[in-house]
DNA sequence: CACGGTACTTTACGCCGTAAGGAGTGGCAA
DNA sequence: TTGCCACTCCTTACGGCGTAAAGTACCGTG
């Protein structure tokens, strides 16, 4: 009688992820028959959860809160979604659909990769909560595979062999995610504490002096590192201090990384 | 009467982070005087929390659980620590003390950076919960500054100017953290679900065929990408499949990244 | 009209962080 | 020696969380 543990839920999740959303698909695979008509559908639940996450962060996504947004109780959601983990999976794969799927290679792979990196960064800043979802054991939804497809298509233009390509792909993804996470964390910290980056840094650095008077002697490089005046980035003059810093670091880091790819291609390519 | 919001707590936290742990420091800055003698100290609380996090992940670190480990109730901890956030800050800065502080530059900065990256990766795998702590608004403890000091010292040997150095530093840290996170997530998923990577992937890929029969047509590159047989890595033959993959990707990605640094140095250096 | 299946609600359980207040302990001043 | 007070540590409680269990209301079908 008992279904093999997990297997049943996994199949259910995969069906939902890959469900046919075409107009004629009717009831989204649900058995049509007698019984009270559903007032909601999976998409409504997922969209409400995404809206909540975008507005107030992943921490604001509770079953009660999502239910309330839809005029239901928390338990009502369980008719559409197995549990919260499944809801999060569906949220992730759905927003991944926003990402561009094609980067022209006319101007070479470097231009395409740069555009991909910037688009991805913007995406993560639009949906920072995606960064909090575990990377291993990916969702395996259609949009996730599409993102892989997109990036691999560009990377293949480098001519690198598969195993190196894998390493480069990982490095690019880690870099973009990490860089986005720094900015996202800074923004959420500012919102949660009500304290801007500037005020935070100012109050903390004065405390630092108070608590460690010999700081400059103990940490000369950190002192030097923190004092260098960072030049402004065109188009981002008005952004918060730390964020401007992060934007510049992103561009520099990306350029270095792509230089590395170029070097690898030059060494191993035809 | 009311202290400026947050300021008091921030000062308290900084004092704890930078407290003098020397033998003669007595009572760790606590006002000595009348009153019941403490049966614990901050270090005991922090150590217990770290042990818990190392064993069962950050999710297992609740005030009740830490208290129980010390034979106390949850509320007893609040005499040593302001709240859970402060405890987490102290945990982070304490484990950061495990990292090596010096990388000789005799054989050049590339060797030193490679060693740094590998050591950092091992560190994050020993304490994967550190990766879950927000990056913006860092802890600002002594050990954290020491890690900055260590890495900047090595990076200065490249001769790069400060703003580029900042970008490289960010890229390196993001890469190492991301790569470690993939492995850490895979391990914790395996432990939490009781399902190894291999079984997980096998069951999922069969579900994938079931749910999307035209997968190979829709996602040719992903199919190609997933099929390439990855060669084994010396010294890691017995590790789980996905983890071996991750180790190789780490080495490849690191090499590419350092190639990029070399190219940047060559272009801009003396 | 009655029945069965479905949507949705209420209630409840055991977790979480932590506020409030009380009990017991130990050093110091009277 | 006694009384006090600072201090540790406890119990209780509150509002949150995810979700199990059971009940209610609605609907299409027989």
Automatic annotation (TrEMBL), chains A, B:
Residues 62-81 bind DNA. PROSITE patterns: HTH_TETR_2. Gene3D superfamilies: Homeodomain-like, Tetracycline Repressor, domain 2. Keywords: DNA-binding, Transcription, Transcription regulation. It comes from the Bacteria. Residues 39-99 form the HTH tetR-type domain. Pfam families: TetR_C_1, TetR_N. This is TetR/AcrR family transcriptional regulator. The lineage of its organism: Bacteria, Bacillati, Actinomycetota, Actinomycetes, Pseudonocardiales.
